[in-house]
């Protein structure tokens, strides 16, 4: 059986722009763009993981967030369970603490960037909810 990974994903939106980050080359799907987030530790509530990952990766603290979608995706080498949350408000100014480039991407341009396959249904959902 392949490895399964539970991931908290932050969709951070300001007006018509979404914050995306470029994955480091050495990681799975390196060089692709992604929504910030990371692994949920064993026994850790997903909301706690979301806040922790945003603090560790972006130097921001989410204040208000709502569940958006849960996605299970199987890659040949592993399965991922993405717990996707819309971050409506946060403290701080996002910066790539792990050296990753960040970009405030206009909603209507998201599909021009290469994302891991597991993220495609998030892109689809966002493209149908422009007026959020």
Please give the structural blueprint.
Elements: E1 3-14, E2 17-22, E3 33-34, E4 37-39, H1 46-58, E5 61-74, E6 78-91, E7 102-106, H2 120-127
Parallel strand pairs: 1-6
Antiparallel strand pairs: 1-2, 1-4, 2-3, 2-7, 5-6
Low-pLDDT segments: none
CATH architecture: Alpha-Beta Complex
**Category from helices, strands and their pairing:** alpha+beta
Q: Biggest sheet, in brief? A: 7 strands, mixed
β-strand number: 7
Order of helices and strands: EEEEHEEEH
Question: How does this model look, in words?
Answer:
Strands 1, 2, 3, 4, 5, 6 and 7 form a seven-stranded mixed β-sheet that branches. The chain has helices at residues 46-58, 120-127, and strands at residues 3-14, 17-22, 33-34, 37-39, 61-74, 78-91, 102-106. β5 (61-74) and β6 form a beta hairpin. The N and C termini lie far apart (39 Å). Helices cover 16% and strands 42% of the residues. The chain has a single domain (3-127), classed as Nucleoside Triphosphate Pyrophosphohydrolase. The longest helix has 13 residues, at 46-58. With 132 residues, it is α+β, with helices and mostly antiparallel strands.
